[in-house]
Amino acid sequence: MSGNIFNSNGTRVAVLNGAEVFDLDGKKIYELKGINLYRLSGELVGHLNSAHGSERRLDRSTDGLFPVRGRSRQI
């Protein structure tokens, strides 16, 4: 599965490629197993809202895992 991850405000904050999550600079930052987000060390840190398709949304409690950057664009 590939697509974009948006925070609760609708700002794109990351890219999903298969089970890997990358920041907007292309650096791998998390792994996705089901809807759960894990640090590269294997520590569970949060989850994505269950969604179908290529767009995934974060809930407010998970927003802090993805800092908003100036070049992100809101949809």
From TrEMBL:
The organism's place on the tree of life at top rank: Bacteria
Ranges where the record places region Disordered: 51-75
Extent of Basic and acidic residues compositional bias: 53-62
Protein name as it appears in the record: Uncharacterized protein
Organism: Bradyrhizobium erythrophlei
